[in-house]
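Replying to the earlier thread about multi-chain prediction with a worked example.

Input:
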Amino acid sequence: MSEQERIQRNRSTRPDAAPAEVSVDTTKGERLKADLDELLDEIDDVLEENAEEFVRNYVQKGGE
Amino acid sequence: MALEKVLGIETEYGVVGGPDRDPITASSLVVSAYARRGERVDWDFEAESPDIDARGLGRRGSLAPVVETQLANAVLSNGARLYVDHAHPEYSSPECRTPLEATLFDLAGEEILRRAQRVANEGLDGASAITVYKNNSDGKGNSYGTHENYLVAREVPFPDLVRTMVPHFVSRQVILGAGKVGAETEAGQRLDPAFQISQRAEFFEEVVGLETTLRRPIVNTRDEPHGDAERFRRLHVIIGDANRSATATFVKLGATALLLALLEDDGPDAFPPPPSSPVRAVRVIASDPTLRAVVELEDGRRVTGWDLQDALYAAAARYVSRGGGAAVAEEDEVAAVLREWREMLDGVRDDPDRVADRVDWVAKRRLVEGYRERYGLAVTDARLRAIDLQYHDLRPERSLSDRVGLRPLVDAAAVERAVNEPPDSTRAYFRGRCVAQFPTEVVAANWDSVVFDLGEGPLRRVPMSDPRRGTAALTRDLFDRCPSAVDLLRALDG
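Result:
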């Protein structure tokens, strides 16, 4: 996570933080980026351990 | 007047694991695990006729989809059907009356599969554990379906349905696609996309046809109304992705239902013409996440998939502003469909991040691209494909779509109710109440009838040829005052 995003997140969790002078959409965009960074930080704990084997073994029969 | 849009979604889930790694075994274990929770009511195949063609070609037995009667198959108290179709556990939602209700019952299906998976795994060792995925392909050229169904007036000429729905089915993926890393069919690989906006797009090879497993058509002609064939069609839509975004499911159902109602009320003139090569258009649009790819329409104009959706949105919005839409839902819900449809369209064009909380392909692509950039991976890295698959994992501890911040559309309590209780608004209410209240006497059920065995005399079949009847408003009192199945049938006779 970049320093700037860290600061942004910390500020947004402070109850006395003044509302940032940005449009709602921009704030949301930054939050989304921060959320994505956070998810990327933890994704390796969630991903199947051996991606190669997992992907290889994921074989389905056609359906419908 | 447009016909009330009774609708629903059937989903074949991907499945891996099981004691012998055979997907049929795994699917059967999942379905029977859920059915074991209570008395099981079997599906009744009496009225199934999936080989009748809407173009009036009559029965073509050799093309009939295989129906595996011996496999696990159950009718649930929420009016849904849970069964093994080919080599997949499939949940067919009960018939619903509005897009929001059908979305709720699709979410109930996810929860039912999640629970079924958990119960099945209680009886298996860790190495045999079964996992189900709400997706549509294995990345190796095998696809399985997410099909929508809509009640359509029989008077609508089938060629009009084709002409008006093709533009929509080709283009709606720009906001409704579930996204996919790479390509897996010959046709798809020729376009060499690193990422496609749709799971299913590259599997479509015909414009119109009866098949669902081979040479899949953009418009499926299966003419099996599961009701009075004189009055009803059931449009069986096989070109759609399994969405984890509830908003996407809602807009998929709502937009399609509105366009069908518009066709019934005003005819085909309000619709943009179809692309001159619809099959190619589906793939070209899917392969370009920048949404700039252009396709040629029958009138010679060259437009993007986004342009087509924009034109269809405009047609639906005009229809609603003239007072249309009552056949789809109440005013507020129709307004919500239009609002979300518009916002998703504007979002994918102007700033996809803005709709990453609603558009599955955008949410997935952010994850795939973010991970790839962070670790400098090749676009073919297995970890990116693993992210793709795990986006669709239903287990809370593994699901990536549960972690990307998709906006919930309904609350957990409503989903919980929908897991167990049928919608009030259609004949699914009658089916679900029968299953819940008379599990011993109801020996079989299907979409348009319930069969009772009262212990003596012949089996009694109660027909339900109109999906709009058998509602709570019409039958709740009846169920409440009939303690036994004998009482119920006597009251129905009387």
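Chain B has two domains: 7-413, 427-493.

Feel free to reuse this layout for your own posts.
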